[in-house]
């Protein structure tokens, strides 16, 4: 484009505006109607969508934590131990597993989770720990700890 006067050059908005608008229109490409074609409408809707996407990332993390806690507490109730006691017993036994790992074990490896519950229960019994946080007693079956040889290992870790 050839400008004969400096006034025409100043009035030209240049490539910056084109690329700025193009970025918004690309984000609004899947919208319907004026929300995708009209810049002033598209920019509002894109900004709203970006705000919701930012909030959703935090909510997704919180939802996953809630799901993991629900799975752990349900599996602990089956083995007659509270989730707090389970975590405390595992921590005292130097078994450091996070929520996600315990949740996966509870869902996909029930025998492994049962052994972890037995280890936690035995360690809390040896330490004389009393769980006063949960007023609701678990309704699961009592663990048969006769065939689990843990006493020597748990006593040496003390």
UniProtKB/TrEMBL annotation:
A single GO cellular-component term from the record reads: ribonucleoprotein complex
Does the UniProt entry include the keyword Ribosomal protein? yes
Give UniProt keywords alphabetically: Ribonucleoprotein, Ribosomal protein
**Any GO molecular function:** structural constituent of ribosome
Q: Which domain of life is it from?
A: Eukaryota
Under SUPFAM superfamilies, the record lists: Ribosomal protein L20
Q: Which InterPro entries match?
A: Ribosomal_bL20, Ribosomal_protein_bL20_C
On whether Hydrolase is a keyword of this UniProt record, the answer is no
The similarity comment for this entry is: Belongs to the bacterial ribosomal protein bL20 family.
Against NCBIfam families, the record matches this protein to: rplT_bact
Protein's recorded name: Large ribosomal subunit protein bL20m
């Amino acid at each position: 484009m050839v400008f004969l006067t400096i006034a025409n050059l100043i009035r030209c908005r240049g490539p910056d505006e084109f690329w700025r608008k193009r970025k918004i229109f690309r984000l609004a490409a899947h919208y319907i109607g004026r929300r995708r074609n009209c810049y002033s409408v598209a920019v509002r809707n894109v900004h709203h969508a970006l705000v919701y996407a930012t909030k959703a990332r935090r909510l997704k993390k919180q939802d996953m934590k809630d799901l993991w806690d629900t799975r752990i507490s349900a599996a602990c109730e089956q083995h007659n131990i509270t989730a707090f006691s389970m975590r405390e017993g595992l921590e005292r036994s130097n078994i450091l597993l996070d929520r996600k790992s315990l949740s996966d074990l509870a869902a996909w490896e029930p025998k492994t989770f049962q052994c972890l519950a037995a280890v936690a229960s035995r360690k809390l019994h040896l330490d004389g720990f009393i769980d006063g946080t949960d007023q609701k007693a678990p309704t699961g079956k009592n663990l048969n700890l006769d065939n689990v040889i843990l006493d020597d290992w748990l006593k040496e870790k003390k």
